[in-house]
Specification:
By secondary structure, this protein is mostly helical. It contains 12 helices and no strands. Helix 1 packs across helix 11, helix 4 runs antiparallel to helix 9 and helix 9 packs antiparallel against helix 11. It is globular, with a radius of gyration of 19 Å.
């Protein structure tokens, strides 16, 4: 049977897009951590907690996208995941790879707050919170699932949370702008955020909708995608709750 002869499949793109339309009302986004982070500058010790936990969580993002490629069989869905993965690794430029940009920013911010050189490698030696470890374990389980519908549901949540997350993190980062005497130096340091907000995450959101819709052929498929999506939201809400409580404990 040729492609032209195959029966027309139901397009779930619109329904998938509708699912993520109100993601900013979920506890994974509408939570006490973001209100605290955007509400004003925190102490060095508090920001160090954030940096440790955020790096511990985020360093595996590209690995999860790679797993979504491996654990998805639909070719069109895989293509969208590959686009996402290529972007995560700086479109082939290691200096622009997202983990590299993040490590550079966090090290710069911590060093300015502490008044001495501080590296992310130094901070990463400290044990992460149990809630962060739980997030990472649950995330890997979702992206390693032998059901591509679960994988794509998790990816849908991850990518749509990422844009909302990074806009809010950036708004909080602006509280520390006075640490950079020159305006241009501050904006150069924030490349990690601009790369995501300006282009990458908008593309990743679009790609995730397409790839999730591609694995939906029936109502049951759609329900399983939603299950993966909801599980990732719950993991993320628990992660930010743990970070918030740990930061408050430093007061």
């Amino acid at each position: 049977m040729t492609l032209a002869e195959q029966p027309t499949r139901t397009d779930f793109t619109g329904r998938v897009a509708a699912v993520v339309a109100d993601i900013d009302t979920a506890a994974a986004i509408d939570n006490d951590f973001y209100r605290l982070w955007m509400g004003g500058p925190l102490t060095y010790r508090q920001v160090r907690v954030f940096a440790r936990e955020y790096f511990a969580r985020t360093r595996f993002t590209a690995v999860m996208v790679a797993l979504s490629v491996l654990n998805t069989t639909d070719l069109a869905a895989r293509v969208e995941c590959v686009k996402n993965l290529y972007s995560e690794y700086g479109n082939g430029n290691v200096e622009k790879a997202h983990p590299v940009l993040l490590e550079s920013f966090l090290g710069d911010l911590l060093s300015r707050l502490a008044g001495r050189p501080v590296t992310v490698a130094e901070v990463a030696l400290e044990p992460e919170l149990p809630s962060t470890a739980a997030f990472s374990t649950g995330q890997r389980e979702l992206f390693s699932a032998d059901d591509e519908r679960v994988v794509q549901g998790a990816l849908l949540a991850q990518e749509h949370l990422a844009f909302a997350m990074l806009t809010r993190l950036y708004e909080g980062v602006r509280n520390y702008k006075p640490l950079w005497p020159r305006e241009d130096d501050f904006h150069e340091a924030c490349e990690y955020f601009y790369v995501h907000i300006g282009e990458a995450e908008k593309e990743h959101k679009r790609e995730a909708v397409i790839s999730a819709a591609r694995v939906c052929r029936t109502e049951d498929d759609f329900a399983v995608v939603l299950c993966g999506y909801d599980r990732f939201l719950a993991l993320t809400a628990g992660y930010w709750r743990g970070v918030h409580d740990a930061i408050v404990a430093q007061e």
